[in-house]
Amino acid sequence: MSVAPTPPRSSCPGSSRASTPDSSTAKDVDGRDEPGHDGRRGCSWLKRGAIVSAVAVVAVVGGLIAYAVSLGPLPLDEARQTSVTVVDRHGKLLRAFAMADGRWRLPVDASTEVDPRYLKLLLAYEDKRFYQHHGIDPLAVGRAALQLVSHGRIVSGGSTITMQLARLMEPRRQRSLGAKLRQMVRAVELEQRLSKQQILDLYLALAPYGGNLEGIRAASIAYFGKEPKRLTLAESALLVALPQSPETRRLDRFPDAAQAARDRVLARMVEDGVIGADDAAQARAVAVARQRKPMPVLAPHSADQAVIADKNAKLIRLTLDAGLQRALETLARDRAAALGPDISIGIVAVDNANGDVLAHVGSADYFDDRRAGQVDMARAVRSPGSTLKPFIYGLAFEDGFVHPESLIDDRPVRFGAYAPDNFDMTFQGTVPVRKALQLSLNVPAIELLERVGAARLASRLKQAGTELVLPKDEAPGLAMGLGGVGIKLIDLVQLYSGLPRLGSVLPLREIASSGNDKRETLRLMDQVAAWQVGSVLLGTPPPENAVRNQIAFKTGTSYGYRDAWSVGFDGRMTIGVWVGRPDGAPVPGMIGRVAAAPVLFDAFARSGQMRASLPKAPKGTLVASNAKLPLPLRRFRSSGDLVQPGDDKALRIQFPLNGSRIDAVSEASAGALPVKVAGGVLPMTVMVNGLSVGEIDGRRQRLIAPPGPGFVRLTVMDASGAADTVVVRIQ
Fold it and tell me: Where is the composition biased (Pro residues) (predicted)?
């Protein structure tokens, strides 16, 4: 009879050794028990060892956690503090402001703002396994430990980029095992809280480069005068070497030590196969800079204003273009130096399409105290001279009692106690309105302003977003047509930018909005009137050696030679120039055409853009010679020359009434809108939005074809030059 075998039993859980029921106790050669070979006792020792190991691990982990907790939270908010930076529309740095303690620390995005070759050198030299480890590189730590044992001192710390960031966030003077342990714990915390990209960005913003420079952007700008987006191999190696000992390798103090450290980086990169020997040799041949460059200060007035407007912002984006801003600042500085030590210049350039300020030069030199450089003359209230005249003419064109080809008299005239005369104290006689504006004749401008109304002009300019500053307790008067008010250069440029926009003004902006642009267009004048003004100004004789018929412009000189102006535009851009003394003192002989107009034309030339043509004439614009104009438009008659009939014979429009709403005329009534008048002297001309549509018949009425829906200006002018105007809404 066979007996079933007993299954083998392991001597210890997990053991593969087989045992029999009789093998629990081994026998020696004398037949005595061998306690050391007791399987159960061996298993017990293994269990105890595992338990002790687990407890030790738990204790170490618990101790590290307790230690980490004792360190407090990571000072991330403090580490993320950077200098306030102001950038242009393309993200280029215009100006940075030092932090409260004087340090320059600029934010940086390694993925888009740093040269990839620099990043390659940095990681190859400092942390080869940056993207593989979790804050601590065991291989680097092991190497450092062996060096410590073999040399008896710390040779290399085995620090990763993350550990170095931890040290930068919590600086420690001593170099000890305790400090290293703290870095390791903090590095693990950083890896848990931040992505690799965020860690790298923060390191590149905090790394020291000597003196008050922190971060690669501040160092690259201060040492090389450029952003770190495009670095040479020599520059990249230098920036890798400097943070290891920033104070003993400062370029402005120890350039030889900095160059030696750079060359060591290059040599090691050749050994590691990161770069070629020839490239390294060329990089070593480049001498390092021996002094720092100043931080950029472009558009300082705009930057100051933006920081005041938003005191909590760390990054402010302006609409300015850094290239144009730099070119116009240089232009203003050079021209002011040629004009005299007390002269300053303000320039504002605007994009007509969107109202963005592309350049804002507030003074000739921000740091020149004699020129009061920190005073923003683009926002200072000054007398505009003759620069408001185009808007007088524009309202006259809009009202329909004058045309660019109408004739007007330039002769001595008196308005009460006011008797305007021309700048050269002469009179031109009878001239076309076009020429009167191009030559900036004073008497015709005041004659037209009297018909338009000074209060109406002031109201229209205010409606277009400009506040005129009148003398205390004075109402708008005829003198405002020759500069008897105050205005800012930036507001004047805003007004002029409405002319190439055919009468609609878009409020200017310098701070780029992050959300939807909620600006609404403002009404300056009718499209036809705006086009006519632009057409006239385009023919103004330019300064010497300038090309004609490319820029529409106007000059102005304030009373006493205190302010010289020139504002011009093409189809793309409007630029305004002010020249004078910031303290308002007169500068004998300084006039707009000589002092400001050349600066204006140079500003357009330095903009780097091809001239853009002005818009074409709007549909319905009356373009004709004087001989082909309607009879009342051939010659302008001043108010004193008009026939003054009795009240019952004064010209007035009886229908439609001013301000009325009229339903669109149906086809049943032949699409005709009746215009009825009373008084006046025949023949009479009817004009719709400045365009002649025929004459009033003997019954003192006329049927006209109404334009499309919207506001319509109807003007009737009689043979004496008297006119009446109503504005109605077709709906």
Answer: 1-10
Element (H, E) at 429: strand 429-432
Rounded CA-CA distance 423/592 in Å is 12
3 state SS of 86: strand
Task: Assign domain 76-284 to its CATH architecture.
Answer: Orthogonal Bundle (1.10)
d(CA 241, CA 551): 54
Catalytic-labelled residue, pool 344, 386, 440, 558: 386
* Domain boundary assignment for the chain: 76-284, 381-606, 642-730
- Cβ neighbors of 91 (< 8 A, separation 6 or more) are 317
Neighbours of 197 (CB within 10 A): 11
CATH of domain 381-606: 3.40.710.10
Strands 315-317 and 563-569, by their bridges, are unpaired
Q: Angle at which helices 233-241 and 277-284 pack, to 10 degrees? A: 80
Q: CA 230 → CA 49, 94, 146, distances in Å? A: 59, 18, 39
126 catalytic? Reply is yes
Which DSSP letter does residue 464 get?
A: T
Q: For 341, which DSSP code?
A: T
Residue 529 has pLDDT above 50, yes or no: yes
Burial of 708 (0-12, 13-18, 19+ CB in 10 A): exposed
Torsion of CA 127, 130, 135, 140, to 10 degrees: -40
Say which of 23, 126, 191, 245 is annotated catalytic.
Answer: 126
Residue 31 above 50 pLDDT?
Answer: no
Q: pLDDT value at position 171?
A: 81
pLDDT of residue 42: 63
Q: Which CATH class is domain 642-730?
A: mainly beta
This prediction has a pTM of 0.80
Q: What is the C-alpha separation between 287 and 307, in angstroms, rounded?
A: 39
